Hints:
The complex is a heterodimer of chains A (219) and B (365). With 219 residues, chain A is mainly alpha-helical. Chain A has helices spanning 2-15, 20-37, 47-70, 81-90, 125-134, 146-150, 181-195, 211-214, and strands at residues 113-117, 140-144, 172-174.
Amino acid sequence: MSEISGMVAADYEAVMPYSKERFANAERQMSELVKSSMQGRKEPVNAMFTRMSDISKMMSKGLLNWGRTNSLWPLQFGLACCAIELMDFGAARMDAERKGFLLFRATPRQCDVMLVAGWVTKSVVPRIKRLYEQMPSPKYVIAFGECATCGGPWWESYNIIKGIDQVLPVDVYVAGCPPRPENLFAALMKLQEKVSGKLAGDTEKGLSENIRRAEGKTL
Amino acid sequence: MGLMRINVGPIHPSTHGVLRLVVDVDGDTIKNVEPHIGFLHRGVEKLCETRMYMQNPSYFEKLDYISPLSWDEIYVSAVEQALGIPVKEAAQWVRVIQLELQRIANHLLWIGTLCNDIGQMFTTFMWAFRDRAQVLKLLEDVSGGRMFYVHLRLGGFQRPLPPDFAERTYNLTDYLERNVLQYRDVLDENPIFTERLRNVGAISERDAIDYGVTGPVLRASGVAEDVRKSKPYYVYDKLDFSIPTGTRGDSLDRYKVRYREIFESIKIIRQCLDMMPNEGDIVGMPIRLIGPPAKPDTVIVSRELPKGEGIIYMVPDKQRPYRVSIRSPGFINLAALPKLSVGAKFADLFAIFGSLDVIFGETDR
């Protein structure tokens, strides 16, 4: 019997090379891991509810992102030359509706995207800030054209701010003087990627997180 | 009932830019309108003083971003007169063709936005932009730029015309004539449209002259004044065209004057294509920063822009303008807005303002 049992034990060891020590080691490691993970908490968390809320958060985030991505409503708000290209974007040649961003709304309270199209003078800055603050969160800004990006041809002018990013957090910059309507299409698709979370930095930036603003370089 | 003060703008979908109107209303009737401008001011005249002559056309194109070529042409003409450089014969004809194409593009956009302003949403807007896109396509193939074509040079153009220019322009005029005639079905013969604009914002002949308005706003009051006829430049004196005028001076007449001007422009373009020399060099001087010294003391150039009469007063220096002063039609026409809209209903305010065709790039400079 002993031989047989010895043989059986040897076979068992050969097939599954585990020992009591190793199991004990794993058990100790696991308990240490759990203890260390619970260190920061005041009371133990119900694992079941944690998991469900995680699932619902993940699901709702994905659903919200999907919805936001496919219904970006721009604010109907033009300043200068680029606004004419904005009108062309809304006209017949560019079928913008197929991507979900045709509805130009005249009130900021219904909009997601602010298209700053044109040069921004010092007297318009408070108005643009006001419009931006009236938009519901999450909100995105596209600097459309050279003037809104960096001041453009008016770099030496005394009344133009050198880029709207001194005032607002800009998500997408569009180069061109003026950019073609196709460029606006591409910019909005880039913004869609950002909203859907494909790019890094998709979290919404607040006014205070603007780097230049934090450095005190605003007007 | 006392007066109530309503603030409109500065950022408003119907102001075509950034304009603030402070309107005093008694009930629904406008008692006073006070336009506040300057939200797009960027100091063009000052910027021009620090640049060489041919670095400036880009600034002048951005004065009126619906018809940029017109302002570009005024400035280049002023420099040509200052430096004493003649325009080549063939280039004069081509400039007239392109200016008239630009006028058509401007009026098409104006018709589209006016219909948006008065609530006839998007049908005419879409049609007008469809037709305007064809004009812009031709000008883009000629110049290289879709909206801002800085292709005028001293004495001519930057580069020769594409070989199929004449044929394409003929086809474009046919296309425009056919499509713009369709507007009559939804606008001219539509009582909703005509009654919305008739007797709205009327200005008499006497008042129009007193307020100094020019362009279609003046011609709608019955004054047949056009710089192309009264002080012909380029080859306009060889061409046969008429000046459309109105009788009542209201918004409907301003629409009709502009609508008929599109056909006059088509007529001018066809005549130019027929009469222009088949072969001729149109390429002007390359941009040279150091040019010949300027001759006269002052230069005043007056042109018929799509929006009215534009004037540039320039004091030339050797290589750069010493002073440039701009008389923009939008600024003067906007000054007549209180006169036009006092007594009208508040709902008609943008039917009046939209008919003036004011653009704020040139109003605020």
